[in-house]
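Incident log, structure service

09:12 report received: a user says their structure output differs between two submissions of the same chain.
09:20 pulled the input from the user's history:
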Amino acid sequence: MWLILRDIKAHEGRASRSVVITSLAIGQGGITPEAAKNDERMQLLYGNDLRELSKLGVPFVMAAGNDAEKPNRGDVDQIPMVLQDDDIPLIIVGASDWEGKRAAFSQGGPLVTIYAPGVDIECQNKEDKIKATASGTSLGE
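09:34 re-ran on a clean worker, output below:
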């Protein structure tokens, strides 16, 4: 996170032309927004930089997570997504199917900003560049 912030600050005018998009999630899940806000280490590692990016006007978009079918994982529950707050306005994207319904694997809850198609998305295979089909919240970003 700090590398992104450092790069944006080092180049005049870059903040107004930037959007940060990530599918990165830290940990095994199960953390609540309240616990994350009270975790000094998480605030130092992520919260402070996310706040600064927000003050610079840089939108931060991230995937909601694909673990909704695991026990007690229906809502977004990983760092840095659970740091979303009034001073850290994140855009969290969940996956929907082609009928507009939340995908069974997509984590949801009050932190999700929007749902976008994330089921059976046509894309390229990264190894041999052949057409493939994939599903996941990262595809909706």
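09:41 both user submissions now match this output. Likely a transient worker issue. Closing.
09:42 reviewer note: Residues 93 and 107 are 9 Å apart (CA to CA). Helices lie at 2-10, 33-37, 40-55.
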